[in-house]
Amino acid sequence: MKPLSVHLLQRQMFIWLPTLAGLLVGVCSGCKPKIPPPGPTEVLVAPVAVKDVPICREWVGTTDGITNATIRAQVTGYLFSQNYEEGRIVKKDDLLFRLDPRTFEAALDQAKGNLAQAEAQLGKTELDVKRYTPLAKEQAISQQELDDAIQSNLAAKAQVQAGKAAVEQAQLSLNFTRITSPIPGIVGISKVGIGDLISPSSGELTTVSIVDPIRVHFFLSEQEYLRAVKQPKVSGWGKGGLGPELALLLADGSTYPHKGRINAVDRQVDDKTGTIHLTAHVPNPDLMLRPGLFVRVKALIFTVPNALVVPQRAVNELQGKYQVAVVGADGKVSIRPVKVSERFGSDWMVEEGLKAGELVVVEGVQKARDGMTVVAKPFVAPSASQPAPEPKPTVPSTPASKPQHK
User: Fold this and answer.
1) What separation in angstroms does the CA of 240 have from each of 4, 232, 264, 297?
2) Which of 309 and 390 is assigned the larger pLDDT?
3) DSSP string for residues in 71-82
4) What domains are there in the chain, each with its CATH number?
5) Which of residues 371 and 78 earns the better pLDDT score?
């Protein structure tokens, strides 16, 4: 059994131990250095600019030949030869196909023979009329015989005319066995083969298209068309105008090197689609473009004067609504809703919510809060020629090896 003094000492230590721990904590906390509060957030700002904004539009278009001649057979016959290289340029009247001409040569010879018989009969009837005319005056023959001779002569003349027409028709049919190109241009792939029996009902044999310049079809909405024609000085449209200069964006993303012009606007707006049909002519000296290509047609259609413009990076979109962070003269941020309309390069055109010259946050938008005091520094847009910095390679971290216990 412990003595009484030991019990009293343990009891006093139990009572004073929490007090000593509190004192130690207070002394240690007083030894920690005080951390200064963070300074104002730095942001990059740009002024709201005033510019005349050219508005460009893009439409999906298709290319087509200026003239597309569908080659068909005019007579019936077996295909004898193909006399062109598919996909190459041909001249007007170049031979494309030949049909077997023997049947038509025989028909021409027969027509010429019939004409010769008719001409011989005409000669006989003319002699009869010349001989019977004085005899009828002397009443050596009856008037009836002279009338019959005259009628036979007229019939012979008609037979000669019919024979000449038959010869011409036979010659024309023979000529049709040589199928030639009616226009200069690029000829397509043949749709028939040697030895096929073709006729006018056989359909298309091939197609020849004039593709320099090439035609582009596209469609404008009513609103775009009206806004364009109301600014003829900008768009080039109006009475006698050729329309704006057009650029073509190809399917691989490249821009076609030659510009085009609108050459025709349809007479009416399609009441089903609300669009109007336009065609443009684009130079195609290298024959790079072929009919049937899908392209994007880009053109300037109107200009908005004295528009307010801010960088796109300054505009924050949230659930279909747009807002910007504006830094006032006192350095405080004000979050404002704005109404944007058109994109112009890397900028937004703002219709409502801002004034010219106000500073909007371009870098640090996510850190800016309404009422926050910030340090505003000017934003410098990177030049197009300056390459973007290459991302640094990420080295995967190696987990530390665990100590092995023996």
Assistant:
1) 123, 10, 11, 22
2) 309
3) E--SS-EEEEEE
4) 67-99+177-209 (2.40.50.100), 101-176 (1.10.287), 210-304 (2.40.30.170), 306-378 (2.40.420.20)
5) 78
